[in-house]
Amino acid sequence: MPRDDFPETPATDATDTPAAPDATDAGDRGRTAGGPVGHPRARRLGGVLAAVVLVAAGGGLVSATALTPQGPGSSRPLAAPLAAVPAGSSVGVCPGPARLLAGAPVGTDPQFSPESASARSDVSAVVLGSGAGVLPGSRLASLAGGTLVELAKAAPASETPSAAPARPAAAAPLAGVVAQQGVDDVSVLSADAQTDRQPSAGAVMRYTAEDGDLRGTAAAACQQPGNDLWLVGANTALGRTAVLKLSNASGSPATVSLELFSAEGPIQAPGSRGLLVAPGTTRSVILAGLAPGQEQLSVRVRSAGGPVAAHIQQSVLRGLTPGGVEFIAPAAAPALRQVISGVDTQDPSALADLTGKSGFGDAGPALQITVPGTADAVVAVKLYGRDGEKALPGGGVVTAKAGSVTEVPLAGVPAGLYTVAVSSDVSVTAAARVTRGLKDDEASDFAWSPASARLGSQHVVPVPGSGARYLIFGAPEGRATISYTPVTADGKVHAAAAADIGGGTTASINVPGEVGGSPLVGYLVSAAGDPAYGAVLLQHDVRADISTTAIAPGAAGQEQVPVTLGY
CA 388, 390, 395 angle in degrees (round to 5)? Predict the structure, then answer.
């Protein structure tokens, strides 16, 4: 059980939290270039300019430098012009409840039976208002479009920011909140853009059950859809069930293709290409129908057309004893460096006794590394605990084969909380398995913590409404300062607290049940200084339940992208 490195959030009704920094435009403005009028090519240039005028009049635009005759030494680079891209709305797709497969699966399309009588699934969400105290139009809805909770009505299309109702200059920070809204299917949190800035919003879905084959806790941050996603940690061996769920919250059909990576290399599976996911629907794929008997399996999800949200419902059943359930969320895209936070390990000697028994090899903590390219990776793995780096048995340097998944046990280190840093000479992606429970005749649980992005400013971090909850932060190198501002069910944004994280350490913050007499629903998290990473760790005071959720990226402002002109 994690202990506190920092005191709990002070229970205060203060509402004066520091203003979040506004996003700034990326890049510099493009430049134009000209030449002296008396240039020898003046007559030819006049003809070129006339041609440009004619093309522009016809609705096209061609770079004059592409048409100008080029001689030796006459070319010079021009900065690509920048085009403003308006900030879009925020969309987060939340998984539906965990479901038990009915009967033996045939092919890849599943049938589900009802979950246990004690199973509960709910969504908690936070949408931050603007500095003027105005909430963006926002709602929690079903994937098909039916509204479950309306946080704020959308502004009329004709209304501009200047036409919005006047608010006092010192308006208190305001948040729209959804607290433990029960759900029975996939749901979507959406919030409209405000004044060329994507709204700050986030949601988390939590499933919990005290009985049945899917006993345990599973949680996932509601996910921004994408066209290229990586999921690490699936298992299709005996007693393990992995169901990939693809949800399309857009208005365009999505055609999805899957790339599968095992410990032996890539898997070419019939039926893994051209999977159609219609707008407003979820498609489920039993991964054992594509790659049976794989203890280590990673899935790359690529979508043409509409973007999709993807997660894997992973569960374990050892004979008649439940071994846990989890939602595997996408990890960071392949890169030379990956960082994973929220890794909680148990007593190493007791773990060694348990994992040495038949069928319990995956009951201990481990790191899985996927190498998507054609070259082997030399990978260095480091663990940073509360009081600094801990050495891995064997030194922590491994060779990960190209096109495959390599597992590195995280056993043999003292029990505690860790941040895992992975450095490689070729791009990799990674996730860490976390386990809870040390007796082979009792129900246990597990979680997967994916590699995540560096923390920036104003991340919305919703937390489920019950159980033991912790914010976990790690700073692999250098010092970082974390600001965490509680948001409660009454919509108040309270005073911020700060934590100083030493370089090469991991810290935890206990999440209280209430702040200022109102249930706590989430935090606004910002980081400054050297790179820091974070996750939410969920446990239970009595049962061996565990789950982790990564902190989602913060909101983006209006951006400028380079535009290359040519033909």
Answer: 140
Residues 6+ apart with CB under 8 A from 59: none
pLDDT tens column, 318-327? 999 999 999 9
114 and 212 in contact (C-beta within 8 Å)? no
Cα Rg of the chain (Å, integer): 26
CB 27 within 8 A of CB 562: yes
Q: Side by side, which strands form the sheet with 201-209?
A: 175-182, 120-128, 201-209, 216-221
- The Cα–Cα gap between 410 and 365 comes to 5
Closest CA to 148 of 182, 174, 176: 182
**404-451 per-position pLDDT tens digit:** 999 999 989 999 999 999 999 999 999 999 999 999 999 999 999 999
Whole-model pTM: value is 0.83
What digits encode the pLDDT tens for the residues 187-237? 999 999 887 778 899 999 999 999 999 999 999 999 999 999 999 999 999
**In contact, 237 and 231? CB cutoff 8 Å:** no
d(CA 393, CA 126): 42
Q: What is the DSSP letter of 508?
A: E
Q: Within 10 Å of residue 234's Cβ, how many Cβ atoms? A: 29
**Residue ranges of the domains in the chain?**
90-155+169-559
Nearest to 99 by CA among 229, 209, 189, 204: 209
Position 239 scores a pLDDT of 95
Instruction: Give me the helices (H) in 266-312, please.
Output: none
Q: Is the dihedral of CA 293, 294, 295, 298 positive or negative?
A: negative
Per-residue 3-state assignment (H helix, E strand, C coil) for 75-112: CCCCCCCEEEECCCCEEEEECCCCCEECCCCCCCCCCE
What is the residue type of 205?
M
End-to-end, the C-alpha distance of the chain in Å comes to: 62
Q: How far is CA 522 from CA 310, 451, 463, 519, in A?
A: 23, 22, 5, 9
Distance CA 135, CA 190 (A): 12
Closest among 20, 460, 23, 19 to 224, alpha carbons compared:
460
243 in Cβ contact with 297 (< 8 Å): no
Q: What is the DSSP letter of 538?
A: E
Q: Which two tokens stand for residue 191?
A: 């919030």
Measured between alpha carbons, how far is 557 from 26 in angstroms, rounded to an integer? 10
Provide the CA 335 distance to its chain's centre, in angstroms.
Answer: 16
CB atoms within 10 A of CB 85: 13
DSSP state of 354: H
Strands in 329-464 per DSSP E? 335-345, 366-371, 377-385, 388-390, 397-400, 404-409, 416-436, 445-450, 459-462
**Count of Cβ atoms closer than 10 Å to residue 412 Cβ:** 16
